[in-house]
Structure formats: C-alpha cells, structure tokens
Amino acid sequence: MDKYRIEVKLLTEAIFGSGYSIPGSVDLEIVYDEYGLPYMKGKTFKGNFRNEMFNAIKVLGEKKFGGLLVSLLGEENKGVESWKNLKFSDCRITKNIRDILVYGVKEKKLTPDEIKESLTEVRSFTSIDDDGSYKKGSLRQFRVIKKGLTFEVDIYCGRELSVEELGIMAVTAKMMRHIGTMRTRGKGEVECSFLVYQNGGYKDMTEYYIDSFIKGVRENA
Q: Which stretches of 24-130 are assigned E, i.e. beta strand?
C-alpha cells in the first residue's frame, strides 16, 4: 500500500474548534488529545481537502476532471466502493515533536495542561455593529494554536493511484490556504505540501506531481 502525507505549516494562529465552551475559561475550546496536543479530526480535514479539490477541478474543468474527485474522495451512498477512496488520519503535530511530548507526559516530566498551555494562547474577540462600534456583551475568548507549528495528515488508499490522481492531490495541497475556524479574522492561514513515502521516508513531491499534471493537461488540450 502506497503512503502519502499532507504537511501543514501554520503561518498564523489557528483554531481547530471543538464546538465546546469551558465555563469560567474560554467560549470556544480547541480539539486536543489526552496529552494536551491540539489536532484536527481527519473527517474535518478531509472536508477542507474536498472543498479545495472541488475548487481546483471547477477551474480546470468539471466535465474533464470531475471524476477525480469521486475516485479519490468518493460520493454519497457509495459505501461499498469506499475501499477505493483515500483514508485520512487526524491532522496532528509532526511525529518527532509529538513523540517527545508524549514521552514527557508518560515520564511525569510534563502534564497535558502544561503542553496545551505552551502550544496555545487565549485571544479575545468582539463583534462590531454596522456603525463600526463594538457590540455590548459580544466579548468572547477563543483558544488558538500558536503559529509556526507543523502538522501532518497521513493518507492511505487500498489501490494504486494514477499519476493524474496524484497530480490533483498535489494541486489541492498547494491551493489549501486556510483551515479551521475564523478564517475571515486572519486565523488558520497555512502552507501545505504533498509528500510521498519513498525509500524509508517521506519526500516532498508537490512540485513534481503538479508539473506532471500540468504537462498532461496541456498535452490533452
């Protein structure tokens, strides 16, 4: 089974919202695991990836490339064919950093709360009225993930992917610019890369597969 990865670098603070508030603390908490490490659920990331791939295919031509979206990400009520589609892991902090922090918790050198507090901050936001003034009672506190962190999503498929499919995956990764909550407020700006597992490690193949894809498009134009 071939293995792929999307590497996600946070260029700004991001909010991987859980949808829950903590009484006496924050109005919107992030998703984090038992070690205090923030992450985005694989299903949520897949939704972001699907939207971006749809946008890419819309530009390239739905009639010609629309089938790639279905072959890679599936369609509703087609569960029996799901083994042919991509499977996404959760979007987690890179393994080398994660392993160190998990080790620290297991050895009781760190606590999950200490890790969460070191990787995140609490920001205050307010709503604005039509006249530009602040709405009374609109102050909210959201937890944000600090910029500069790198996350990764592992991708698997039960079949061999075509060069064209790999190309649209690379194009989609390159086009992903924002993930998470409050994108219109400057949160969740990212830079993504498409990696392929080769010779015992992951290699950035973003530009290689984008170039191959574009070349194929031009030759078949």
A: 39-40, 87-88, 91-93, 120-125
How far apart are the C-alpha atoms of 94 and 146, rounded to whole Å?
14
For residue 220 the two structure tokens come to 């078949």
Q: What is the pLDDT of residue 2?
A: 82
State the pLDDT at residue 127.
56
Q: Which residues contact 210 (CB under 8 A, 6 or more apart)?
A: 167, 170, 171, 174
Distance CA 214, CA 221 (A): 10
Nearest to 162 by CA among 84, 56, 88: 84
How many DSSP H helices and E strands does the chain contain? 6, 9
pTM to 2 decimal places: 0.87
Q: How many CB atoms lie under 10 A from the CB of residue 58?
A: 12
- Token representation of residue 83: 């083994």
Alpha helices in 74-219 (DSSP H): 95-106, 112-119, 163-175, 206-219
* Mean pLDDT of each 10-residue bin along the chain, 221 residues long: 92 82 70 96 94 93 90 71 82 96 97 96 71 58 94 94 95 95 87 95 96 82 61
Q: Which of 97, 91, 49 is nearest to 73 (CA)?
A: 49
For residue 60, what is the enclosing H or E element?
helix 42-60
Q: Which two tokens stand for residue 141?
A: 């506190």
